Amino acid sequence: MLYQHPENRKSRVTKQHNEDCKSLLRLMGVPTIKAPYEVEAQCVALCKSDKVFAVASKDMDTLTFGALRFLKS
């Protein structure tokens, strides 16, 4: 999962864009989830439970949640 702070975005992503992306991922057999609260916390939880290999982000917020493997994007 990739998270980008709003001030770094070059274009506006709509709810329909998100739904279209999730539909495409599901059609390709890639599971999707919705984080109940903090996206970074959810990503770290997935990494700690070995559901994903690493967490990718442009900032270091995931490290505060204890990311085991971090990829700077």
What does this structure look like?
This protein has 73 residues and is mainly alpha-helical. The protein has one domain (6-72). It contains three helices and two strands. It has helices at residues 15-27, 39-48, 61-64; strands at residues 55-57, 70-72. Strands 1-2 form a two-stranded parallel sheet. It starts with 14 loop residues before the first helix and ends with a strand. It comes from Zingiber officinale (Ginger). InterPro entries: PIN-like_dom_sf, XPG-I_dom, XPG/Rad2. Keywords: Endonuclease, Hydrolase, Magnesium, Metal-binding, Nuclease. This is XPG-I domain-containing protein. Residues 26-73 form the XPG-I domain.
Key words describing this protein structure:
two-stranded parallel ribbon; 2 strands; magnesium; 5'-flap endonuclease activity; PIN-like_dom_sf
H and E string? HHEHE
How many β-strand stretches?
Answer: 2
Regions with pLDDT < 50 over 5+ consecutive residues? none
**Rg to the nearest angstrom?**
13 Å
- Domain count: 1
Spatial strand order of the main sheet: 1-2
Largest sheet data: 2 strands, parallel
**What's the number of helices?**
3
End-to-end distance? 11 Å
Q: Please give the share of residues in helix.
A: 25-40%
What structural class do helix, strand and pairing data support?
Answer: mainly alpha
Shape: globular
Q: Provide mean pLDDT, rounded.
A: 86
Strand content: 5-15%
Organism: Zingiber officinale (Ginger)
Protein name: XPG-I domain-containing protein
Domain XPG-I: 26-73
GO molecular function: 5'-3' exonuclease activity; 5'-flap endonuclease activity; metal ion binding
